[in-house]
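TEACHING EXERCISE
Course module: macromolecular assemblies
Task: Read the component lines below, then compare them to the predicted structure of the full complex.
Student: A.B.
Group: 4
Components provided:
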Amino acid sequence: MNRLFSPLASSLSRRRFVQGLAVGGVLATIPAALLARESAQTALGSAPVLSGTDIHLEIGQSLVNFTGVTRMATTINGSIPAPTLRLREGDDVTIRVTNRLSVPTSIHWHGILLPFEMDGVPGISFKGIAPGETFVYRFKLRQSGTYWYHSHSGFQEMTGMYGALIIEPRSGERHEADQDFVVQLSDWTDEDPMHVFSKLKVQGDTFNFNQPTFFDFTRDVSDKGLKAALSKRQMWNQMRMNPTDLADLSTATLTYLMNGTAPAGNWTGVFKKGERLRLRFINAASNSFYDVRIPGLKLTVVQADGQDVEPVSVDEFRFGPGETYDVLVRPDDEACTIFAQSMDRTGYARGTLATRQGLSAPVPTLDPVEWLTMQDMMGAMNHEGMGHDASMEGMDHSNMNMEKMDHSKMDHSQMDHSQMHGGMVMDHSMHGMQQGSQNPLAKPSTSVNHARTEYGPSVDARVDTPRTNLDDPGIGLRDLAEKGLRPVGHKVLTLADLQSLDGVLDDHRVPEKELELHLTGNMERYSWSFDGLEFGRSTPVSLKHGQRVRIILQNDTMMTHPMHLHGMWSELETDQGELRVRRHTIPVQPAQRISFLTTPHDLGRWAWHCHLLFHMDAGMFREVVVS
Amino acid sequence: MIRNVLIKLALMAPGMVFVLANAAYAQMDQMQMQDEAPSDARDPHAYSDGFTLTDGPYALPGPRQLKLADEHRFWAVIGDRLEYQEESESTVFDVQAWYGTTYNRLVVKTEGDIVNGTLEESSTDVLWSRAFNAYFDTQLGARVDTYDEGEDRQWLALGFQGLAPYWFEVDVTAYLGDDGRTALSAEAEYELLFTQRLILQPRMEINLLGKDDPENGLGSGLTNMSVGLRLRYEFSRQFAPYIGVEWTGAFGDTADYLQAQGENKSTTQVLAGLKFWF
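Instructor-supplied answer key:
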């Protein structure tokens, strides 16, 4: 019965969920042995820093209180976030991890190149760390930059097991900064994550409280007329897709945290006027994309996923679980707000950069929820036509065709080429053998090949005309100035803005082979997969050691998936085959088809998955064998 | 006034259910065609080089350890209607429970009326529910009907349940019983959100019988139909009290049996209840 009535209680204390407690966090660590060593309350917003080459971590349980309710968390050395590890490039490190839980645990070093036995994925790289056991991780740090580490067992990451991992470059930081702050974003639920997951199995929109209503409809009727109001809804309703399905979880169960601090707690980084600050943003959330900005400050992005990029000045960036961005700022004011609203616009994590503790700056309001567009559902369609009856009717038509159409049989003469993004999908003259002398693998293929397992109950949509452009900031971040939500000239980072610095990308060979995989799902059944096959029904992707390979990921769903490949880099390229940026986690937008190149240098079995924890656990997970 | 509107709605209902059921079937047909992979569809195992999760280089010894939620069994109890109907002074329950994976589940559906502490009639389906396409499950199993006054009936059941285009929840089951008895029942529900928590649910149900069942006061053909409107407030998604009104009518011989017993062949009820799941 607790299962039935607990949500009632939670809806009554919703404000606590959204704002959290001003003084929350870890209260006490269990077992008593740890309690004796640690203070009863860990200082907020300043995870302990551990450095050197020999580190000991203990996994235990701690009482925490973020929302007014005391809950048990899974913690590393009794803090949330876990200790920040500051290590040095080139060092051989030994990290002993002792499990004081009653269940197995693990730690995965996210984005770190290492022998596969040290990667920390139970069931793939090792057998996990049994209760009472100590596992010794030993590896050489072959890279530098901002990374993080977290449990790879069950939902332990979601209950508190995440921390920053910073590797200082041997040659010193490329960009001087007076101070260096880790800004780690995460999310917290008072419920048992497995219980939250099981609710989604019963009702996929359990946590979506921004669904279209009858009065939205009547408002559209009075604003735009009945026909337009109906046609705006027609395709969504016909296809049983929810245009506000922006996140599976929301503040209906989550509290968003910055450095382990709820918004009301206002994590504060103290600086002196004139200082240049390096902010190491890490998205350590279980299921939340964040849109981050510091009103009044330009953000100079210098690193993505730990790898240096050509500095790019932006006002805002979106990142998903697993991604990191290093940003340089020089604040002029006494206080400025770091504002990170969740992609579904139900809440935010927030902190302050201030010249002393206790200062704060205005906190922006949440942006309105924006409906997903045809671009997010079908890909390479002209979204300018959205919402206008004439073009909508045209779309309804093409939609009907889309579902039935076999791409190879598609009659291109019926398609309006001006409606396609740069013509990339249809332009066959650019493609393959017709280029004569050029290697056909010089560019990613554009013909869509759905797997035969995508035709079945596990998949609720297939995209036949994906978009391949990288310059889309994504739903909720498009044309913000035109919508009056941001000042004119407000620049939002896109993948197209990221270019690895010279020398970062060191393999310029044309790939020897090309793999195409699709990201798939069924929101009603709450199932997520690659190619319509959940992990349990899948087989590994086999790669050859040292071979240059292209991997195409096509997103057939309407959600953005941060795809994290362990053990090797994912080197993003454009649809013209130009290498752009080295990542370990690539966000793939709805109806988008992207490709990256990789060269596996480390033998073994590796995990490859969506870093939205619930999507991973639902089955959007593959093994990669390098042999 | 409300009564007249309901009666008109009720008269339209068989047609609507028919259209709906047909649309659902047509959709399923269409989906099935679409769901047939083209012959040149990509092989999802083409990149495996013959390796599996347990065989091949670097596989951990022993049985596979890593099992995610796709291999997990879940369960739910869904109380669609648990309500008191004012006119008949009866408590009506309509509860489904399921246990299983994403694609294969054991489903139990039970509904019935309790009057003065006596279970007047009930009908319970025990079904194997198998995902058929993205939105529909096929269901195969048995049904038992009990009557306080009358004869219990057993049936084989075959049906489908799922979400039709335009968000109609549809549940249609055909039954085969003793002595060549056949039956069909169909339900459709829709959710109209006034706000994120205040939701109006129109609901329609029809029952048909192939053969007279005088012991239970049922005639062949369309036996009865109900059309209801329920307005609920979701304190949470899982806990939603509601009030509503429902028209129920009997037809053909079933109506005659009722009238012979001095009962009305149709009733309009005001009701209050709870929708829940856990």
